[in-house]
Design brief:
The complex is a heterodimer of chains A (about 450) and B (about 475). With about 450 residues, chain A is an alpha/beta fold. Chain A has twelve helices and 17 strands. In chain B, helix 3 runs antiparallel to helix 11, helix 5 packs parallel to helix 11 and helix 6 crosses helix 7. Classes of the chains: A alpha/beta (about 450), B alpha/beta (about 475). At the A-B interface, helix 1, helix 2, helix 3, helix 4 and helix 5 of A face helix 2, helix 3, helix 4, helix 5 and helix 6 of B.
């Protein structure tokens, strides 16, 4: 099976046109001892065979068929069919980076509209065209903060998704940038540990930025209005947000954030075992020259007509090479397009209703589960659509029993700073139905018995 | 509405009103959101997103899509980007609900299908590159480069070696020096030799006890195979440094020769290029890495391994550089590439490379009387032409050539790259283009020169046939308008 249009005759005639007798002569600049390696590889499959084979593999993913209460950075949301239909158009899917703007206006204008939506959602001035995922976007945001402030220390709340924190470490360590975790108390960032002027503050004058996630990894709403006030005015306030929550939560721009980052997955992207999703970074206008990643800008053409181009490219690797703001080249453009289409389709009302339904379902579920004997909420704090539970039995046994009954009941969280013993992270969304909640409660009570 | 009319943004089409109800009507009484969340955490004003109907959204984006050039609509010879046809079956199978609805925290037992494919993919990539292990976490080529450079750094540190500098040829992609810098290295740029390849003497001058690695693209960005690769390998390794392979051009040699056999220690593979996944207008891509035995301990986590017939996720590994992406990388892209590789088999993969090189050589020969190549040698899957001879080409520069090709229904080649060639046109036809298309492209180039003789003004002011004409990029940069303002 191949996708090559040449007939054997054509192939030969092209070789002949090059005065070559044999296709091997095409590779005569490769040292002969490197030719024809012995590679072990499975035999080719027809489209029918690969379809069957992939259907089998898909069937081996039992998790895709269970009722899921998993979150932790990847969420099971509704996405209108028009999102998938539009992003699968060849004109979007099989184009590349809009290097030639005159024949890439579709992609460029879409990016511009995406950037605008992200600014409005986050309350910031500028948003880039996407990063790989929230984790890399957080890491790049931290590097950006170091460039802006010319300082080399980052403080990150222990309430930030542990996967993101691990990626942050991977990025910061080789550059010699110091990073410290700010502790959690009762499920939210401990403000006392951040106060400048305090005797043992961790946010000193060497600190480029402090990053907090809201809602945090445990689902808890952070005291976002108070961070700006306790930080040194020169320390940037960065945040990781779930864009789905911003359908109802106050925009980070309103509570003093300087850099806003997060993952676009909740805006219309399938779970797909963790990717492709897309990260984003939004910031203040004055910091745009330190922003990594692509930016589309509006301009005019030779006839004065409105058009769009990639702009401020002197920040980027293809111009600045080793001195660029980042090495990023290919980003997650099609995912950003999906997010834009999702937001337009849902509109302010749909975005609000989806967020509200997630919150309501999570609260109903939490209340009902906590009415079971021995089950308790770990942190008695306002939460969004995820919450932590302590169970009166070992988590692994519970999860495995639940799975046998057709439910993925949550993510097991190991004890860590601020969490004394293992707990279950449970999530509900607007897709969680009343019967799912009923089933979960009944199932848990049966397992606990 | 004619195609060339402005398409307003959807912000301008906001018609107000209520907007659609997307969610099922609630059966019972609902708690007010203010009773569940503290009032000060909530938005005071409604979110400022326009209210537009589904038909308007669909028409808007369909109209925008028609303003894009894409592989499915025409020849896209963008050098170094491998714009080959993307089989539709790849997308359809990656979208099977069993894959697309699987949560990354579903647990190993519940994810065996995807884990098996990821594991097999690691095996295939190691086999094709001639290396010992692979990791799929990096989300794009540059992410793979960063990963590779971090592994090299960790390896040297483990050896107690303080090696601070990475050598990068001046013909390299910009991502190479940028990635090495992000991994904490200093960069030394190697001047290429007159033949466009690594200059051995120059390499010797730069190699020393501080050299951590040489990053090489092979074939290089001029489309030339580094014929002295075995000597380069010996010099680099004798100096105690490692050899990094930028897989951007792997489509030239996959199944034909292997970077591992050339002595490369780390490779990144752009699955979206060589293994044909849709480029998405700039992503998502996927940039797995493959490594030699001694670098395996440094691979990023999570690792996918096989144990007692089960596929398992390994979250921690003592010497690993750590985690590079939130979950497992761009799994949806990896699934597409997997489908493609399984359909081709080794013979198909090899045939791709053979045909990609044949197409490039053929097109170069069709163009040779029109535009000279910068270097003589046999090109591989791409080649670089130059319009720098002003006496010969007058004002018909690369930008004008690009815009006139666009007017004739072709995407432009990569322009002004590699940086070491003045007025460079970098052309990569790929194997999925027919002889007829290549002939038509060559004829289009010829017709541009003819038109330049008769109507130079028209040629120099192209494009004329596109939805917008030449755009003012200076204005875009001087007065940045990056978000729509009412």
């Amino acid at each position: 099976m191949d996708f090559i249009p040449h007939t054997p005759d054509e192939f030969q005639s092209m070789l002949a046109a090059l005065n070559l007798n044999d296709e091997k002569e095409l590779f005569r600049t490769i040292p002969s001892n490197l030719h024809d390696p012995d590679i072990s590889f499975p035999s080719p499959l027809s489209e029918m065979e690969i379809t069957e084979s992939m259907q089998t593999a898909a069937g081996e993913n039992r998790g895709s068929k269970l009722i899921s209460f998993l979150g932790g950075g990847a969420y099971n949301h509704f996405s209108p069919q028009a999102v998938a239909a539009l992003i699968s158009r060849s004109e979007f899917a099989t184009a590349y980076t809009p290097y030639q703007p005159e024949v890439s206006q579709g992609t460029l204008q879409s990016i511009y509209e995406f950037q605008t939506l992200m600014c409005r959602l986050t309350g910031m001035d500028v948003a880039n065209a996407s990063m790989y995922d929230a984790a890399s976007a957080l890491a790049e945001s931290a590097l950006m903060a170091c460039r802006i402030t010319r300082k080399e220390k980052i403080v990150v709340s222990a309430g930030v998704n542990p996967h993101y924190r691990r990626v942050l470490k991977t990025y910061l360590d080789p550059q010699g940038i110091e990073w410290i975790e700010a502790p959690i108390r009762d499920g939210a960032t401990d403000l006392d540990a951040l106060k400048t002027g305090a005797v043992e503050t961790i946010v000193d004058d060497r600190c480029a930025a402090f990053f907090v996630q809201n809602p945090n990894y445990y689902g808890v709403l952070e005291p976002v209005d108070q961070f700006r006030g306790v930080l040194d005015p020169k320390t940037l306030l960065g945040t990781v947000v779930n864009p789905h929550s911003l359908g109802i939560l106050k925009a980070p721009g309103e509570w003093g954030a300087d850099i806003v980052t997060g993952d676009l997955q909740p805006l219309g992207m399938p779970l797909q075992f963790g990717g492709p999703y897309a990260g984003f970074i939004a910031c203040r206008q004055k910091h745009v020259r330190q922003l990594p990643g692509r930016l589309a800008g509006r301009t005019t053409d030779a006839d004065g007509k409105i058009g769009y181009v990639l702009t401020l490219q002197t920040r980027e690797q293809h111009i600045r090479r080793a001195k660029a703001t980042s090495n990023i080249c290919t980003n997650q453009a099609l995912c950003a397009l999906a997010a834009a289409i999702y937001m337009f389709l849902m509109g302010p009302k749909g975005l609000r209703q989806a967020a509200e339904a997630s919150v309501r379902n999570a609260h109903i579920l939490q209340e009902r589960l906590c009415s079971l004997k021995g089950v308790e909420a770990v942190f008695p704090k306002p939460f969004f659509h995820e919450f932590l539970l302590h169970l009166p039995m070992p988590l692994n046994s519970f999860i495995s029993a639940a799975r046998d009954m057709g439910v993925l009941p949550g993510i097991p969280i190991a004890p860590a700073g601020g969490l004394e013993r293992e707990a279950l992270l449970v999530c509900a969304t607007e897709k969680t139905r009343k019967q799912d909640i009923d089933f979960y409660v009944e199932m848990m009570s049966r397992i606990l018995e | 509405m004619p195609m060339d009319a402005n398409e307003p943004t959807l912000f301008e089409l906001d018609h107000g009103g209520e907007g659609r109800d997307w969610l099922p009507r609630s059966g019972g009484e609902e708690k007010a959101i203010d009773d569940l969340l503290p009032g000060e955490s909530l938005r005071r004003e409604p979110l400022n997103v326009p209210i537009v109907s589904e038909p308007e959204v669909v028409r808007h984006f369909t109209r925008l899509s028609r303003r894009n050039f894409c592989i499915d609509s025409g020849f896209y010879p963008l050098g170094s980007c491998t714009m080959k046809y993307n089989p539709k079956i790849n997308d359809a199978l990656a979208a099977l609900p069993g894959f697309s609805q699987l949560h990354p925290e579903a647990g190993m037992e519940a994810s065996q299908g995807t884990l098996r494919i990821l594991y097999e993919m690691q095996t295939y990539l190691a086999a094709l590159t001639g290396l010992s292990g692979a990791a799929l976490n990096p989300c794009a080529g540059a992410h793979g480069e960063l990963c590779g450079m971090m592994m090299i750094r960790a390896y040297h540190q483990d050896q107690g070696d303080k090696r601070t500098t990475v050598l990068v040829p001046d013909s390299a992609h910009g991502t190479n020096p940028a990635s090495a810098a992000m991994a904490g290295f200093k960069i030394a740029e190697l001047k290429s030799g007159p033949d466009g390849c690594v200059d051995i003497e120059e390499l010797k001058r730069y190699l020393n006890e501080e050299t951590a690695a040489l990053m090489l693209t092979n074939p290089n960005t001029l489309g030339l195979f580094e014929k002295n690769i075995l000597e380069i390998e010996k010099l680099v390794h004798d100096a105690g440094a490692l050899l990094y392979y930028d897989g951007a051009n792997l489509n030239a040699i996959s199944g034909v020769a292997r970077p591992g056999d050339m002595g490369f220690n780390v490779v990144h593979i752009n699955l979206h290029k060589t293994f044909s996944t849709p480029h998405g207008g700039g992503g998502p891509g996927s940039g797995p890495v493959a490594v030699c035995e001694k670098l395996k301990p440094y691979l990023p986590v999570p690792l996918i391994e096989k144990e007692n017939g089960q596929y398992i996720i390994v979250r921690d590994s003592e010497k690993s550089i750590g985690q590079l992406s939130t979950f497992f990388g761009n799994v949806g892209v990896i699934l597409r590439a997997y489908v493609y590789m399984r359909m081709l088999g080794l013979e198909g993969i090899r045939k791709n490379s053979v045909t990609a090189v044949l197409n490039a050589r053929y097109l170069q020969s069709r163009l040779k009387d029109l535009i000279p190549s910068e270097h003589d040698g046999d090109c591989m899957h791409e080649f670089v032409l130059t319009l720098k001879d002003h006496d010969r080409f007058g004002d018909l520069n690369v930008m004008a050539m690009a815009k006139n090709l666009i007017d004739r229904g072709f995407h432009a080649p990569t322009v002004y790259f590699p940086l070491i060639v003045k007025e460079a046109l970098m052309i990569e036809p790929t194997e999925t283009e027919s002889k007829r298309t290549l002939d038509a492209f060559a004829e289009a180039v010829a017709s541009i020169f003819e038109e330049y003789q008769t109507d130079p003004e028209r040629v120099l002011h192209a494009p004329h046939e596109t939805p917008v004409r030449k755009l003012d990029e200076v204005k875009a940069a001087r007065q940045p308008d990056l978000a729509y303002q009412e």
